[in-house]
Amino acid sequence: MSDLVQVKDLRVVVRKDSGEEVAIVKDVGFSIAKGEVLSLIGESGSGKTTIALAMLGYARLGCRIAGGSIRIGDTEVLALDREQLYGMRGRTVSYIAQSAAAAFNPMKTIIDQVIEGALIHGVMARAEAEAKAITLFRELALPDPDNIGRRYPHQVSGGQLQRLMAAMALITDPVLVVLDEPTTALDVTTQIEVLLAFKKVVRERGATAIYVSHDLAVVAQMADRILVLSDGEMRETGATRDILARPQHPYTQSLLAAAAPEVRESVAVAKTEDTPLLQIRGLVAGYGRAGSDGLPAARVLDEIDLTIRRGMTIGVIGESGSGKTTLARVVAGLVPAARGTILFNGTPLPATLGERTRDQFRRIQIVFQNADTALNPSHTVGRILARPLAFYHGLQGEAANARIAQILDLVRLPAAFAQRRSSELSGGQKQRVNLARALAAEPDLILCDEVTSALDTVVGAAILDLLADLRRELGVSYMFISHDISTVRAVCDEIVVLYAGRKVDTGSRQSLLTPPFHPYADLLISSVPELRTGWLDEVSTRVAKLLPPLHAAPATTDTPGLCPFLSRCPVRVDGLCNVAPPPRRKLADEKEILCHHTGEELLRMQDQLLQEKRIQPVAAA
Amino acid sequence: MSAPKSRTSMQSAWRFVSSLPIPGLVGLVIVVFWMLIAMLGPSIAPYEVGAIVAPDVFGALTTQNPLGTDYLGRDMLSRILFGARYTVGLALAAALAASVTGTALGLTAAVAGRWIDELMSRVMDALISIPSKMLALVIVASFGSSVQLLMLTAWLSYTPGAYRIARSLAVNVKTLEYVQVARARGEKLPYIACVEILPNMINPMLADFGLRFVFVVLLLSGMSFLGLGVQPPNADLGSLVRENISGLGEGAPAVIMPALAIATLTVSVNMLIDSLSGRSVRAEN
Questions:
Q1: Which end of chain A is more exposed for a tag (fewer CB within 10 A), N or C?
Q2: Is the CB of residue B62 less than 8 Å from the CB of residue B78?
């Protein structure tokens, strides 16, 4: 049997300003059998998206498909003219992009956009296409499949939109579906729903697909075969199971190593210390004008208590919108607290920037997620680092230059980088400079806001190592904010789980490895894809489980302080959770959860699930 | 890091010139040419500005009158040499003043907080709602026409626009994380405005300045056409076009030459400014 898709010696070049052409995809070849899912995996810049787009006969602006052959069925894609390509795209090959929000037109209803492809290619009549779309919606497990199409893109959630885009791609029954990082922008708890839907529809329809991703754990669930890329070259290809179990190429081995982050050793912290470094009590903060009760219109953080001891790393985890970034901004003074106190070294920290002393500023430094916008593009690295030195320590001239070289060395960058601007640095280098600027102040506490999220796994792992080293060398404390539980577990001594601005679970790193957890923490932990095939099928039964129904009178929803996780909680109790605010329970090992269930109840429920999944909790180093 | 102190201004000027791309270089040459004309024009002009030197009006190009003669038989070359000083000096000065004030006020409004921002924005909105030509007419009618007054008028008319653009640019830059970092570092507002924000909005402001320069040339020409601008026998380049407009049908050089002068001046200013945007990056490499 000949393969459905055959790619030979594919070469894509990009034209530089100087006119010379540089190959970004170098002689890549692979084949896909009918009904098979091939995954392209690699870091940013490895050429995986370029190859995916080449399957549609498309090269991005400035790029050119310079050679090779792409045969899909009996068609040679690279030999087609413009008209024929238009006829092929969306009909023979369809594409699912990373950002569904950007791929939908906000002015048209969803169904119009989903069936557009079928109508353009004249595959079927409108009524027929709509019926088929509704079938697809049902297969993709979308809520209210008969009517969801009449909504506009902003009226559905991000995860739903991603599935609707899959429906758009599948409407014409294409020969090949290209999925380009379709779940990268989603929260883990949403990602799992989307993955399940994709997997089901791919299996049921027997679709042939190319799945592009940087996340090995996700790929392990979706792909039959994996093709590992770096710098536009093929490194290794083979069945998913083989690649995961026996990676041959060193690059694949490094990817696998970075995907399962090793736990950085924790520094012994004296628990009996008199004054903690940072102590937050009953913090309420938000945005918008303050109401009559003195609280902001949009409350983002509610009743947060938190303690950071000297030399300790505390992890703050939660999905987008949970208020974790706002927490860092409140501590930094960028957002004033509406209520509650922040004690730093035992003395209250003023809520606004204007009232803080220079020494208080120096002791707390913030490092933002996006190093692209965190470094002033018109300043050199040297100037960026010189400012805190002059500002806090009065260092000038030669002394400052010497210190800059020292700090650059601390973040493992050569001293010559002081002459560069941020546009001449790679993502990882920018993040190191970003960190170096905070270190230049010689702070006690560094607030790290998603510092590794925008980076490739290997680069991110290097930054985590650096953080751990600095902590050992300098004794700084971190508040480490992330949405990625495996990163947090790798570097933090204590972990706080935020949900909708409330602290739902707190405990040591150890306590987030073994039950009992708060139901949300449990969902979060169990949603992180594991680096083995078959994981998705194991958890599918659990995700499909219906939530316990709620019958109590809707008027009670006005009760302040109800559990924030109520609407999604799989173990909620009718007549209790929707009526009374949950208590803050103290469990063993200084663990604290916000739940009506006792620790024993949760332990029983979650232990059972663990056994169902046959997973042994991983022991921490 | 800052440049070594030993480097002379000559050297840094040469570095600047050699870092410009070709269009920028062409723009620079023409701008410098017009600057020289504006400064030296009257002393190298072959005739007096108001002298009628030829019997025929809208004369062709001859050795006596290299750029022809105007509607009264005056030498066009001399009139352009005299007129350039008004256009270049007046328009450049007014546009520069408007852009600098606008940028300074816009930056202040963006960083200074809500009340100052509101107050300044409303005052500027009030100013912007007055048509610039009407404002100019009222001012000239009240105080009479003089070069200083024309400059003041142009400055007043074009500051609010520059303010609006500067403010919106500054507000966008202000939300970026490096500004947040500077605030969390405890930096004072003037530092944030001048060191963190200003360098990142200077290029669009320069482009805006180029545009504003062209507008001021047009305003001055319009005023001169109404007889309220530069007073005869002097004329800026704009009024030279206007006063010779009846020669257009005959294809007289008297109308084409000052038009060409305005075109080369405005285009070269914009070419120079456009090439400044990418300069810093190129100079580094």
A1: N
A2: no
Q: Tell me the mean pLDDT in the region A121-148.
A: 89
Distance of CA B9 to the CA centre of its chain: 25
Q: Which residue from B50, B45, B37, B146 is spatially nearest to B84, judged by alpha carbons?
A: B37
Q: Which of residues 436-455 of A touch B (CB under 8 A)?
A: 437, 441
State the Cα angle at B145 between B141 and B151, rounded to 5°.
110
**Is the CB of A418 inside 8 Å of chain B's CB atoms?**
yes
User: Rounded to the nearest 10 degrees, how much is the dihedral formed by the CA atoms of A152, A154, A156, A162?
Assistant: 100
Q: Does the CB of A375 have a partner CB in chain B at under 8 Å?
A: yes
**Chain A contacts of B183, Cβ < 8 Å?**
334, 353
Round to whole Å and give the CA distance between A448 and A328: 8
pLDDT digits (tens, 9 = 90+) for A139-189: 888 888 888 889 998 888 888 888 899 899 989 889 899 999 888 878 888
Contact between chains at A376 and B284 (C-beta distance less than 8 A): no
Q: What stretches of A150-233 show up as alpha helix (H) in DSSP? A: 158-170, 188-205, 216-222
Cα B241 from Cα B283, distance rounded (Å): 40
DSSP class of A599? H
Measure CA B193 to chain center.
25
Q: Is A513 helix (H, G, I), strand (E, B) or coil?
A: coil
b/e string for A15-31 if b means 16 or more Cβ within 10 A? eeeeeeeebbbbebebe
Closest CA of chain A from B53, distance in Å: 55
User: Residues of B with CB below 8 A from A405's CB?
Assistant: none
Q: Which residue on chain B is closest to A354 by alpha carbon?
A: B186
Contact (CB, 8 A) for B226 and B244: no
Spatial neighbors of A266 by CB under 8 A, at least 6 apart, are A313, A493, A509
Please indicate whether, in this complex, the C-beta atoms of A379 and B199 are within 8 angstroms of each other.
yes
Nearest Cα of chain B lies from the Cα of A167 at a distance, in angstroms, of 37
CA atoms of A21 and A459, how far apart (whole Å): 27
Q: What are the two backbone dihedrals, phi and then psi, of residue A523, each rounded to the nearest 5 degrees?
A: -60, -45
Going by C-alpha positions, the residue among B250, B249, B269, B247 that lies closest to residue B258 is B247
Contact at 8 Å (CB) between B165 and B158?
Answer: no
Beta-carbon contacts of B5 under 8 Å, excluding residues fewer than 6 positions away, are: none
What are the strands of the beta sheet with A93-96, ordered from one edge?
Answer: A93-96, A176-180, A208-213, A37-41, A225-230, A233-239
In this complex, the residue of A334, A391, A401 whose CB is nearest that of residue B183 is A334
Residue B76: which residues within 8 A CB-CB, separation 6 or more? B65, B67, B68, B69, B70, B240, B253, B254, B257, B258
pTM of the model: 0.80
The two tokens of residue A341 are 């106190």
What are A303-322's pLDDT values in tens digits?
Answer: 899 999 888 899 999 888 88
